[in-house]
Amino acid sequence: MFGCSRQKIGRGAEHFVDLSQVVCNGKAADRIHQDGIHILINMNGYTKGARNEIFALRPAPIQVNFIVGKCGKM
């Protein structure tokens, strides 16, 4: 499901950069800052593999946590 959302965002964005291959969180944060990103959205939250350290470095003036929940039936 996440891959599908990510693909939709990538297609709809004017500028989309995949930082998953940038291992160093500091370098990823530098890239975000150098690109002049104004709004940075964290779509992983506190899940396995999340890179919250990038957000701790405050590379963008506005940072948002986007929480996606799953609906279920009882």
Describe this structure in words.
- There is one protein chain.
- The protein has one domain (2-65).
- Helices cover 35% and strands 11% of the residues.
- The chain contains 3 helices and 2 strands.
- Strand 1, helix 3 (52-56) and strand 2 (62-65) form a beta-alpha-beta unit.
- The longest helix is centred in the N-terminal third of the chain and has 11 residues, at 2-12.
- The two termini are 22 Å apart.
- The mean pLDDT is 84.
How many angstroms separate the termini?
Answer: 22 Å
Q: What is Rg?
A: 13 Å
Molecular shape: globular
Widest beta sheet: strand line-up: 1-2
How many beta strands in the DSSP annotation? 2
Indicate the percent of residues in helices.
25-40%
| Proportion of residues in extended strands | 5-15%
- Tell me the number of helical segments per DSSP (H or I, 4 or more residues long): 3
Broad structural category? alpha+beta
- Biggest sheet layout: 2 strands, parallel
Mean pLDDT, rounded to whole units? 84
Number of domains: 1
Return residue spans where pLDDT drops below 50 for at least 5 consecutive residues.
Answer: none
Q: List the helices and strands in order.
A: HHEHE
